[in-house]
Write a structure and sequence with these properties.
By secondary structure, this protein is α+β, with helices and mostly antiparallel strands. The chain has two domains: 34 residues; 134 residues, Immunoglobulin-like (Sandwich), CATH 2.60.40. It contains two helices and eleven strands, in the order H-H-E-E-E-E-E-E-E-E-E-E-E. A hairpin with a 2-residue loop joins strand 2 and strand 3. The longest helix has 27 residues. The radius of gyration is 24 Å and the shape is elongated.
Length: 177
């Protein structure tokens, strides 16, 4: 029996190395095919700070509890108005504010409610990227988005912005309402 082990030791060693390596490559590739289209790797700017990401300056972001005229939030909720200053330095890169994430506690996530509440359509809720449009901002501008969140939300919260060409990277600006 020991002659068999001796004569096949190279093949066994190759199996011991190649089977886990091959499995890792396949699993890594499958994970990457999914993750490259999802916001996975954040560039974080703490409260009151700015983030430079993809040649765009974001922040500092603010979140303020507001009451909007004619809008009553559901029982047990409040409306947070999130404002993010943006400076694209002349570029036409588009970006989207994907949501507001609770960074502690339950890690809850909320989408913007600009279509639910009576929100001024002239406010930017994303970064327009069509230079020919009348809505394209010249110079620095602000993204203003309302969120309806439960009353028990205190912070810190993460405002998450995505630039499609930069995925899986994204920007997270920390705010405390």
């Amino acid at each position: 029996m020991s002659a068999w082990w001796r004569s096949n030791r190279r093949a066994l060693l190759a199996l011991i190395i190649l089977v886990p390596l091959t499995s890792g490559v396949f699993l890594g590739w499958e994970w990457w095919k999914v993750a490259r289209y999802e916001p996975t790797f954040p560039t974080v700017a703490e409260q009151g700070r700015v983030a430079d990401f993809a040649d765009i300056t974001f922040g500092p972001a603010t979140a303020t509890e507001v009451s909007l005229l004619g809008v009553t939030a559901p029982e047990g909720t409040k409306i947070l108005w999130v404002r993010v200053p943006v400076d694209r330095h002349g570029a036409a890169t588009g970006c989207t504010l994907t949501g507001l994430r609770e960074l502690g506690g339950q890690g809850r996530f909320w989408r913007d409610e600009s279509k639910t509440v009576d929100w001024d359509y002239r406010r930017y809720t994303a970064c327009p990227n069509d230079r020919r449009s009348d809505l394209f901002p010249r110079g620095a501008f602000q993204i203003d988005v309302p969120f309806i969140v439960p009353d028990d939300v205190e912070g810190p919260l993460g405002v998450e912005l995505v630039i499609p060409d930069e995925l899986p990277g994204y920007v997270r600006l920390v705010v405390v309402p």
